[in-house]
């Protein structure tokens, strides 16, 4: 089968299109013929190993799993003898952060992992883009224990995580202020934001507004800058480590002292989470934003675009044209 493989950590051009053996299902696994995947910041982070810590998951000296692509959608082509909840021909989507593989024509995943059927009427491209931004946003919103009526600010509301966060926060009943650039003000309003701050015209940290939760989905602010905007027991979460990894330190010290807190939840995803996201899609409460589409031959270009930090929502990798 065709797949994008990388045998060493590094810049986008370590990713190459090659012919490799098709995976074979084990007892409790399904074999998915992949139609669409995404190229996202998780794939880029694993590939570059920019943060050394990621190697504890992907291999200390070289990649343990050579085909990246944590998000996928496609059709089940084979099932292991122990599989009970799926059948051949089912259209499925999911997130495989254990063995990855979305950037190849076929992948295997355990039936109990983060995989479920695609809602009716949803394209493979849209289904592939449901879970990366969706589950990072979900983990952080749950950690902040957001309650209906609370005021929440999302910085970077146009990223994969930010665009999902705005929609999920509305589902949880929050009053959302979203920060984005001028060209995306309408998009972010359509995602459900109650108030939009255009960061090209106004610095949200200088507005004097108060929030129960500030979610910096692009990690461009600091706890210090945002503290004055937090209510007495307000929560700050960033998707980045912060200057010199300060967010890890603040997360530890915040546990000791009361009042305003920085949390740094570790992301995780289960089957229950992808089913939760799917049900929101079915109810019309969540729709992944798609920016560009690339094919397998354009993988280097796709990575370079994703790494500009300027994509709007998700970048789809088309495995089947
Ligand atoms: N290391 C990992 O494994 C990993 C995994 C997932 C996510 N993350 C981190 O999570 C963050 C978000 O990822 P993502 O995929 O959701 O983001 P993304 O898609 O890369 O989003 C970037 C978006 O943020 C906007 N933006 C850039 N600078 C901004 C600023 N100063 N204020 C407000 N908006 C700004 C950009 O809009 P413009 O057009 O205005 O620039 C763009 O739409 C990234 O920092 C990423 O590194 C890390």
Structure write-up:
- The protein is of the alpha/beta class and 321 residues long.
- Helix content is 26%, strand content 26%.
- The protein contains ten helices and 15 strands.
- The protein has helices at residues 41-48, 55-58, 124-128, 131-143, 160-171, 185-190, 223-226, 246-256, 271-282, 299-306, and strands at residues 2-5, 16-19, 29-38, 71-79, 91-95, 106-110, 115-117, 151-155, 175-180, 195-198, 211-216, 230-238, 261-263, 290-295, 314-318.
- Strands 3, 4, 5, 6, 7, 14 and 15 form a seven-stranded mixed sheet that branches. The protein has a six-stranded parallel sheet with strand order 10-9-8-11-12-13. A two-stranded antiparallel sheet has the order 1-2.
- Helix 6 links the parallel strand 9 and strand 10 (195-198).
- Helix 4 (131-143) packs across helix 5.
- It is globular, with a radius of gyration of 20 Å.
- The model has no long low-confidence stretch (mean pLDDT 97).
- Residues 40-42, 45, 51, 133, 136, 155-156, 158-162, 179-181, 199, 217-220, 239-240, 309-312 line the site of NADP nicotinamide-adenine-dinucleotide phosphate (NAP).
- Residues 40-42, 45, 51, 133, 136, 155-156, 158-162, 179-181, 199, 217-220, 239-240, 309-312 line the site of NADP nicotinamide-adenine-dinucleotide phosphate.
């Amino acid at each position: 089968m065709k797949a994008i493989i990388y045998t060493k950590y590094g810049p986008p051009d370590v990713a190459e299109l090659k012919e490799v053996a098709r995976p074979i299902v084990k007892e409790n696994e399904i074999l998915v013929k992949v139609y669409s995947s995404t190229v996202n910041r998780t794939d880029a982070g694993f590939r570059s190993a920019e943060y050394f810590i990621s190697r504890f998951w992907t291999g200390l000296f070289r990649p343990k799993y050579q085909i990246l692509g944590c998000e996928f959608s496609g059709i089940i082509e084979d099932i292991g003898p122990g599989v009970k909840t799926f059948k051949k021909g089912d259209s499925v989507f999911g997130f495989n952060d254990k063995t990855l593989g979305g950037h190849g024509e076929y992948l295997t995943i355990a039936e109990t992992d983060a995989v479920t059927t695609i809602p009716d009427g949803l394209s493979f491209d849209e289904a592939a883009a449901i879970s990366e931004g969706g589950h990072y946003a979900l983990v952080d919103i749950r950690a902040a224990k957001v309650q209906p009526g609370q005021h929440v600010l999302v910085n970077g509301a146009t990223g994969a995580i930010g665009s999902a966060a705005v929609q999920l926060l509305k589902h949880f009943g929050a009053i959302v202020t979203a920060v984005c650039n001028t060209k995306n003000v309408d998009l972010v309003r359509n995602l459900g934001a109650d108030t939009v701050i255009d960061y090209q015209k106004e610095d949200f940290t200088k507005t004097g507004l108060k929030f129960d939760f500030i979610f910096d989905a692009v990690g461009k602010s600091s706890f210090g800058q945002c503290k004055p905007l937090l209510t007495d027991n307000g929560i700050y979460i960033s998707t980045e480590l912060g200057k010199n990894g300060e967010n890890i330190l603040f997360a530890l010290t915040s546990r000791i002292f009361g009042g305003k807190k920085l949390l740094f939840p570790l992301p995780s995803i289960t089957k229950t989470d992808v089913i939760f996201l799917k049900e929101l899609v079915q109810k019309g409460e969540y729709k992944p934003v798609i920016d560009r589409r690339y094919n397998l031959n354009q993988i280097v270009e796709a990575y370079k675009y994703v790494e500009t930090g300027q994509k709007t929502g998700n970048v789809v990798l088309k495995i089947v044209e």
